[in-house]
Structure formats: C-alpha cells, structure tokens
C-alpha cells in the first residue's frame, strides 16, 4: 500500500472486498445535498490509457465517436468507442498535452479496452500504455459543489471557465467536467506528494467522499459511464452522449459510425436516459426496468447507480421516451420498486429519436 492510500485508510476510507484500494467512501454515504454544498473525493476506480506518437490523434480519430484531431490542449471531451454495430464498449473522458493523449475510463474494463485498441494500431505511429499510476497522474481528486471554486483558488489563480475546459499547472492538471447541482465539478490529476499536501485543507473545508460520491455527482450531472455491466447495450444517443458533446457527426468513419448516423438522422431510436431515485440499495447497472403500461417486456435498463445517503440509490436509466413521459416505471418487473423521476440538468431533446 502506498503512502497516499495509507493516509486515506487511516482517515477511514473504505474499499470493497474485491478491490480494497478502490475507496467507495469514508465511513458513510454522502447525500446529494452535501455534494451540492461542496465535496472532495479521491477517485480510485478510474484508469488512464496514454497514447504517444505522431499519429496518435489520427488513429483515435478513426476509432472514437468524437473529433480527436482538433482536440486542443486547453480542453477535454467525452467520446465513445463502439462495436461495428454501433453499441458502446466504453465512454471516455479525453484530453491531451503536447506529447500525450489520455483516455479515462473505469479501471475494471481498461485492460480489455486497451488490448482491443492495440489490435487496430497496425502500422500507425502510436504507442498505447497504462498511465494510471504514472507519477504525474498518480492521484485523481474529484472536487465539486458550491464551495469548490473558492477552495481550489487556494492553489489555482485561475480555473477553467466552462465545462470541459482544462489547464495544466505546476500542481497538476485541472479539468472542469459536467456541472452538477448548479455548480462546477473538477477533476484534479496530480502527484501523490501534492495530493498529500493539499488533502488536509480539502478535507477541512469540504465533505469527504469517495468513488460513490463522485459517481453520484456524475449521475446528477447527467453524464453516463459505460461499465462492464452495460457494455454493448447502448447506441450513443440512448445515453445522451451527443447531447453532452460526445459525438461529432461531421467527422469521418469509425466503428459503428453508420449505425450512429442513421440513428441520428432517420429516427431509428425512441429512447433516452433520465435521472431517477430508487428506494432500493440493491438496484444496479445492467438491471432492466419495466413500464406499468406495458408490463410484459422491459422498457429500458439502468446505466449507472450510486448510493444517495438515504437508503437507496440515484441512477441514470435508459428507457423509451413514452415511458419517461408516463413516469410509471419499476425495477426488475412491473411489480418491482418504483422509480422516482427527478429533473434532468439539461433538456432531453428528442431529435425525432
């Protein structure tokens, strides 16, 4: 166990039996209200794939749903990686510096995804590597809520002005991601030494959480994450990826591009992802949901869940648009626990889907 993880463990960080160093919380689950006020969370279940080489951007441009060739060093973007049938194998947060392009995704699916991407490199001048534990990226911190900006200004003179802005600083890389609760959220990638130095101030001024807290904030931001439980289940539009800027319809071909474009322009989908609360702590990603108006077949699937500090979970759930409109949906069967629909942070533009 490294010194940073030892520090967190001494402060009550709790992992799981399967992944003891992936810290879910610090002894209790934070509520959405606590996150809205301000929180800090070590992010220990996310991994980084690094691509180096002069053809890295063009290689990824031909693999992902978003534009990589015009990605600047002051920005981050969401992107998807699809099968030839247009189904998402992964969703990435993507950014770059002068030498390297980074893809962030769940650690649990990183090895298989990295291996799959490597298969298609062929003669392209790019090299893929696992950058999760490189010294400069050894620690990822999530910071958000109403108090986050003031606390971060302890170390940063300026902050990214808009979601998916990025800056490189002597103390690490700071990326503003999708806002939640009407306030900015940031990912701070830094060294273990810097994290150890700044953590006491963060923990003093903000509520302390772990992976669950960050996932809860992402759910309330309406930002989905494809995990092992949901691989190959969704076309990008089903989980609102293009509404979040994660699909570029003007770029060239990539695996599944024809299906994704057809879904956009020919109205082949009538599905979206929405925000709900579920009074059942066991509700999990990959579980099907059923509309009471059509109880015989599932109307959708849970994309992501996180404990909400009130005995249940908040979740992003993909489902038919008419099920969202009727708002009478249950988990597991038409007799299961009812979903409580919550306002989304952005408009679900149907786009004739």
Automatic annotation (TrEMBL):
GO BP terms in the entry: iron-sulfur cluster assembly
Query: Which InterPro entries does this one have?
Result: YgfZ/GCV_T_CS, YgfZ/GcvT
Q: Which domain of life is it from?
A: Bacteria
**Name of the protein this chain belongs to:** Folate-binding protein YgfZ
